[in-house]
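Backbone geometry:
***
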Amino acid sequence: MKPGSSPSNSAVFSKDPEQVPGSQIPYENFLDCIHCGLCTAACPTYLETGNENDSPRGRIYLMRAIVDQRIELSDAVRGHLDLCLDCRSCETACPSGVQYGRLIEPFRVDVHKMESEDSAGPQNDWFHRWILYRLFPYPNRIRWTLLPARVMQFLRIDKVVNALRLPYLLPAKLRRMNDLLPRLQPAEPALPEILPAKGTQRARVALFTGCVSEAMYSHVNHATARVLQANGCEVIVPRTQGCCGAIHYHSGADEEAIKFALQNLAAFDLENIDAIIVNVAGCGAMLKDYGHIAEETKGVPAEQVEKLKQLATKFRDVSEFLFELGPIAPEGEIPIQATYHDACHLVHAQKVQNQPRKLLELVPGLELIPLNESTICCGAAGSYNLTQPEMADQLGQRKLKNILDTGANVVISGNVGCTLQIDSKLRQAHKPLWVAHPMEILDLSYRNQKPTL
């Protein structure tokens, strides 16, 4: 469908606006798009399909046509909208400043909520109810669930299981979860609630530890805390913090997402900290959007909206914060060749691109090799690689090729979802490269240790 033209189905419907998804989105937000098409070259799904309906301007036109009641939300239209990764690369490319995330996200929330009323939405299927909602947001539950996997990996039983192709007996989504499971490192003990700064104290910050990241990559949280300490930060780790709420919000459960937001509001003492540090790009994008989400969610009192807006201003990606603070240069040599992958929700949603590279350039011996299409999504996109496996695999293979073309022996990424996706593709290709977080590299350099590759 060409933007600006009439859809093939030109019938005009007359539904109650309350029954039309997207009707609560400010209409001028749709009109910000001038259909110039500069976003198409940055859109991963359009690059793969070449279909205008799978581009940002095509999807904006489809959403607007639904709001105008010029077309119905058919299965075909829904398919084009669902294929969107919500990577927001179009926002970076757009000269008109279209806030695509503030269109596609509330539109999807409306669609999912309307479906759930008919018992057909994602909130009612077994995978969302038992895995995404009742497992992923809770680190302790994930740890217990992963215990058999840790035992199997320790005894090398997992290799036998995979060689016998036993995972193919699992439901498709659980099979993909098995494929994404990395080699699990020994679980780290919980961080102390207060970690003192080393040397002169320059800042007092809180650390957001996350859910999946804390359960599977707790060593990254420990590395992040040590790097902050080395840069003169006192680090506070509130025990009562919770999930950012992204899993719920992106599947239409906005009220549950707000509950997590309010839990985090109560957990962090905003008056006595300079920033809340986040080391997962997907979480950071969600946390920084608390104010917008609270405004768009029905039933949230104005007082809570204002408090969540204040909370949102405190969140900083760790690379963003350290760059603003002025990093203390590490001295330990890390003699590796690495390439840096830009996580979508860091580079596009949070506009953090140069800061991680500048920090890594401080590490003696580290050579950063440019990555072709670094800002194109790897196909992870939260739970996208579980719900849209075909496109996720296409983008994963595209990213894998670009990584291998660099000749690097380490891949660096600031998002747990990207790490899982890229690590999985590397293992499937029998290319055992280390996929590291920027803070892991800096931490090794500050402690004058060498990585084990």
About this structure: The beta strands are 194-195, 203-208, 233-236, 275-278, 315-317, 337-341, 367-369, 410-413, 434-436. Confidence is low (pLDDT under 50) at residues 1-11.
